[in-house]
Amino acid sequence: MATPSKRSPRLHVDGAVLGFKRGLRNQYNHVSLIKIKGVDSKADADFYLGKKVAFITKASTADKYGNKFRVNWGKVCRSHGSNGVVRCRFSRNLPPQAIGGKVRVMLYPSRV
Amino acid sequence: MTAAKASSKNPRYYPAEDVKVFAKHDAPQNPPKIRKSITPGTILILLAGRFRGKRVVCLKILESGLLLVSGPYKINGVPLRRVNAAYVIATSTKVDVSGVNVDSFNDAYFGRSKEKTSEGEEEFFMGDAPKPAVVSDERKADQEKVDGQLLEIVKGTEMLEGYLAARFTLNKNDKPHLMKF
Questions:
Q1: Which chain B residues are closer than 8 Å to A47 by Cβ?
Q2: Distance CA B158, CA A86 (A)
Q3: How many cross-chain Cβ pairs, A to B, lie less than 8 Å apart?
Q4: For B12-69, how does the pLDDT look when each residue is reduced to its tens digit (9 = 90+)?
Q5: Cβ distance B88 to B67 under 8 Å?
Q6: Does A76 touch chain B (CB under 8 A)?
Q7: Is B71 exposed, middle or buried (0-12, 13-18, 19+ CB in 10 A)?
Q8: What is the pLDDT of residue A46?
Q9: How far is A35 from chain B (nearest CA, A)?
Q10: What angle do CA B15, B20, B21 make, to 5 degrees?
């Protein structure tokens, strides 16, 4: 039996923040657009509906458990367009610095 | 006075306004609805929590809708535990666990014991540090009992022991929406 890797398993899919829901001249920050890696069609995006999304930032002060990473949780609420982009709502709106940044799309709540 | 005191004389005290007596609404609790892919004996992948990525055997669906699960402990370190079905991927691999007796396990067995921790001054000053969990001997004995039967089934199936020992992870070109679990 090959020795198993000691690293934590990856149980999320990476996504990129494309921006906020918007028309040309109006922007609605409460909904963000996320491009999930490997997802290129509306049918593929259906798997991720309802899944939790984590926007992770690093802070300089630790919380009571000693973690310096802070999470803004959100969820995939619907697909956006026909090419696999997805709309997400977060518990706190994403900061504009997040555009172009990474987001983790978890595999739960699972419907498989 | 309304429905409460019917035949006896009027009590000395009664509320100034009529108190509504609500009809007892004993809603029958239906058995939990779990997706069809999860049955006793299904191998599950845990997606979150301390044992994330571990592959585990589903033993029973409890009345609360949670799943009773066991590693088995000797194979991957997952004890008899409750797990929420939303945080689990059900694989198509199934094992026959009808021979394993899990009747004694229910939600009350796993519920947190309501110990009255008196807030002494020492505890108050120690702060909110999480206390180390102590595994009771009863749990260890139950684990041995269930795993004894489970391990035989697992060892009897080809490659299953190694499969349960290995962790699930997403690799570089894996696309969960295309994967057939």
A1: 176-177
A2: 41
A3: 66
A4: 777 777 777 777 777 777 888 889 899 999 999 999 999 999 999 999 998 888 999 9
A5: yes
A6: no
A7: buried
A8: 93
A9: 14
A10: 110
B-chain residues near A13 (CB < 8 A): 170, 175-176
Mind listing the pLDDT tens digit for each residue in A36-68? 999 999 999 999 999 999 999 998 888 888 888
Please state, in angstroms and rounded to a whole number, the distance separating the CA atoms of residues B69 and B44. Answer: 9
Distance of alpha carbon B31 from alpha carbon B41, whole angstroms: 19
Q: Which residues pair with B160 in a beta bridge?
A: none
For chain A, percent of residues with pLDDT exceeding 70: 95
DSSP 8-state assignment for residue B167: B
Confidence of residue A83 (pLDDT cuts 50, 70, 90): very high
CB atoms within 10 A of CB A29: 14
The pair of structure tokens assigned to B66 is: 């949670």
Q: How large is the ipTM?
A: 0.85
